[in-house]
Write the structure tokens for this entry.
Amino acid sequence: MKTSSAARPVATRPWLAVVAAGLATFSVVTTEMLPVGLLTDIAEQLGIRTGTVGLTLSLPALLAAVFAPIAVIASGGADRRWILAGLLALLVVANLASALAPDITWLLAARVLVGFCMGGIWAIAGGLAARLVPAGAVGVATSIIFGGVAAASVLGVPLGTSVGDLAGWRWAFAGMALFSAAVLALHIVAMPALPVAISPTLRQLRGQLGNRALQAGLLMTLLLVGGHFMSFTFVRPLLVGVAGVDPDWVGALLFGYGVAGIAGNFLAGTAAARRTAPILGTIALGLLLTPALFLTIGDTAVGGAAALLVWGLAYGGVSVALMTWVMRAAPHAVEIASALYVGVFNVGIALGSWTGGQLVDGPGLAAVLWLSAGTCAAALVLAAVLAARERPSAKATTNAG
């Protein structure tokens, strides 16, 4: 897979560099999601409403959508090794600022920095696999890099919540600052120089906006991510209120969801390298089955748990499979395409969560599940169309060989 980058960097330990990139995505996604388990404590200590603290989640997601292309274009021809190092250093500062925040204004300002880091790190790190390892190993390397996203939901958020419960929410952010600093040190040691041959520009950005294959991938991203977060934002009410799960078991079930997500990430990453569209179709089918399972057998604890595991396995492959499509759609403009992907991904998070919230406050959770199923069904139809187009292309390549 050719990219707009310069020649392949000389990495003395390429897989350590891949792990460093994976830990970078883990750090930034954990930092993004950290307030999930700390909302109540933050609200009580700062003397504000819990809903207001919710801005610490939605604000970074929306800003990442804006900052991703800005960060990539502003990087120009600079060595991506040092751009990533700078973003990781900024992530350390953002976590320290969050830990020391005297009020909500200070905390939100720190979260603005998180949004900038998230957009930049994800956009740049997401396309590094093809530059660090041989072509035959790109699928596995991409899975490791995006495994940081899945691992953040399994380990990052629960550990941060546990630290918050034991020592207070400020120490959770302080701990992430220390961890991010360690990742920065590993990055400097392990990552080779990453020069670029062609600097991303606004003209290149406008050109990719007309790329039909990329447009399809971005639409697929919006449908899958929006459909997922429409219902996942309210996973606790689904498990407790619909499935009747004991609240004490929710943490364990979400851990199982995360483990299934990591498995889905690596399964999809390996398979998507060969046939991307069919894997996206399989993921869409899994995300369609999830609300269907909740609507049919999800009124029992066993049924709800089964639906959650299917959910984790399906959604675990979303990031890596979509990123694989994006890299193939724009092989000469991977960073620009990645930035657009990150932007649409975060718009999907915001739109899905907001839409789900409107439905929960109105018709209720059943309406959320029906709309989530409809959105994923649309993604399945799109995947079928893309797979039909991909098949003749694959046959042509085989015949040419």
Q: What stands out?
A: The domain at 201-401 is CATH 1.20.1250.20 (Growth Hormone; Chain: A;). Confidence is low (pLDDT under 50) at residues 1-7, 394-401. Residues 365-400 form the longest helix (36 residues).
